[in-house]
Design brief:
The complex is a heterodimer. By secondary structure, chain A is mostly helical. Chain A contains ten helices and no strands. About 9% of the residues of chain A have low confidence. Chains A and B meet through helix 2, helix 3, helix 6, helix 9 and helix 10 of A and helix 1, helix 3 and helix 4 of B.
């Protein structure tokens, strides 16, 4: 039977390095995906994920299971991501207001020639890629705290209590964040929402 | 009503609140549209694919963990490193060894040494007590000497 997060972390505290590896494998993918959707840069997302795990590792001797491990993990991740987003925005403003904003190459982006080779149904594939870009763009446009709330709520499936601890706000404030975020998304994604309703 | 819409969509309302919401939705077209569109957004968000960690992620992570300082025990506070511990113990041993050695006679400078010319100074013939010695002791005297030495 798989050990719980708390038990694994207590074992890490006791000096069991293998338990840390198990925690790493359990959470590296959700963590990287959360950070990627926050900062929109794969390399940066992985750097931040490493930083999260290193901080967890360094804190192992003082670990006390006073909260869920995921709450702790994603609180560190959210703080790092929010700082990174703000730093990135500041750097872009410093470079030039006129320079085009380069968006990180999406994993789904492919060159036209590659698309033709890999996807016989090009039109369908391009439609799907366009939809994904619209959805990504809509999430990107959210203020960072609303974005974090949506990502934690939707993709990590954390409950309101956990998310409010991660974002350090009340549950009612969190529900308000989510409501405003979904309001923005339904406007940004109106063409797709309308298609969905048919 | 805004906060309850999210709870309603997530199925996290208490029974009484859920019934109240459904009653409201049955009469409010705007909220009905909003709930329907929020559900559509929720489904659209599922279309975003997950990305896989790069092949180098685990390798870099292991390297970073290996570079972290090892967990130190309580005595590490006194001895910050093995080299310092070794040097301190050698110094202690040297101090103890030096302290246990007998005290040596102080060296006498050459200029302080008296120059004695044996031709000018006949120690034996001028030694006064030798001149007062009587003849060689008899056997009786040997026995009395040994008793005296025992008493000492």
């Amino acid at each position: 039977m798989a050990r719980s997060d708390v038990q694994l972390m207590l074992d890490v505290k006791a000096g069991d390095e293998q338990s840390f590896t198990l925690l790493l494998h359990r959470y590296r993918s959700p963590l990287i995906n959360f950070l990627y959707r926050m900062v929109r840069n794969r390399e940066q997302a992985e750097d931040l994920a490493q930083e999260v795990f290193i901080r967890v590792y360094r804190a192992r001797e003082d670990y006390v299971p006073s909260a869920k491990f995921t709450t702790w993990l994603f609180r560190i991740a959210t703080n790092l991501a929010l700082n990174s987003v703000r730093d990135n925005r500041y750097q872009r403003m410093e470079i030039s207001l006129d320079a085009p904003v380069t968006v990180d190459s999406e994993d789904g982006d492919e060159k036209t020639m590659d698309v033709a080779e890999k996807h016989p149904n090009i039109e369908q594939h391009l439609v799907e890629e366009t939809r994904k870009k619209m959805i990504r763009h809509a999430i990107d446009k959210l203020p960072e705290k609303q974005r974090a709330a949506v990502l934690l709520h939707k993709y990590q499936e954390l409950d309101y209590g956990e998310i409010s601890k991660i974002l350090q706000c009340s549950e009612s404030a969190l529900k308000s964040l989510l409501f405003r975020a979904y309001e923005t998304l339904r406007v940004e994604l109106a063409p797709l929402v309308a298609q969905h309703g048919k | 009503m805004e906060s309850k819409i999210m709870g309603y969509l997530d199925g996290r309302l208490r029974e009484g609140e859920r019934l109240e919401m459904e009653k409201h939705l049955s009469t409010c077209a705007a909220c009905q549209v909003r709930v329907s569109e929020f559900r559509a957004v929720n489904v659209l968000l599922d279309e975003l694919p997950m990305i896989e960690p790069s092949a180098a992620f685990d390798i870099r992570m292991q390297a970073r963990v290996a570079a972290e300082p090892a967990k130190q025990s309580w005595w590490a506070w006194f001895v910050p490193s093995p080299r310092i511990a070794f040097a301190a113990s050698m110094l202690l041993l040297a101090t103890v060894w030096l302290g246990s050695r007998p005290a040596e006679h102080p060296a006498i400078a050459e200029q302080d040494l008296p120059v004695v010319n044996s031709a000018d100074y006949d120690v034996i013939s001028s030694f006064a007590p030798l001149a007062d010695l009587s003849q060689a002791a008899s056997d009786d005297d040997d026995a009395s000497d040994s008793n005296a030495s025992q008493q000492m």
